[in-house]
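Hi R.,

Here's the chain you asked about this morning:
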Amino acid sequence: MRALYPGSFDPLTLGHLDLIERASGLFEAVVVAVLQNPSKTPAFSLEQRLTQIRSATGRLTNVEVGIFDGLTVQYARSCGAQVILRGLRALSDFEFELQIAHTNKSLAPDIETVFLATATQHSFLSSSVVKEVARFGGDVRHMVPTGVADDLSRLLNRSTPEP
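And here is the predicted structure, written out as tokens:
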């Protein structure tokens, strides 16, 4: 069975990576798909985000990386995914994620949504939090893969902080 893990991944966090790694053990294949959202201005280009994800997941042989726009369920069908994977960090995520899951089910009854709880040590992470901490000079190396931390430093014209 193939699973689709959609998101903006701007940037990829260790919480995202944890879900990808765990999903790769649960499913035959996991497609990590970056949404092209014209209404948002991401910190990283689409190409940078794809590179970050590929770099962080390269050792996982059943993980693929893709790009999509439009409806998630349409992309799920096009890439052969029977499952849409979503992460839950806190109870506050659940209401929104459940609404999206029900909407997707109404559009594609044959595609299931599976929720995975984020590992406790990553439950506070979001891409927005990471960018905010980095913007104000905080060390984000415990929040994102090393390559992403380096990319954030370059983006903000800062040297990488020492441990």
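One quick note: The beta strands are 2-7, 29-35, 63-68, 83-88, 112-117.

Cheers,
M.
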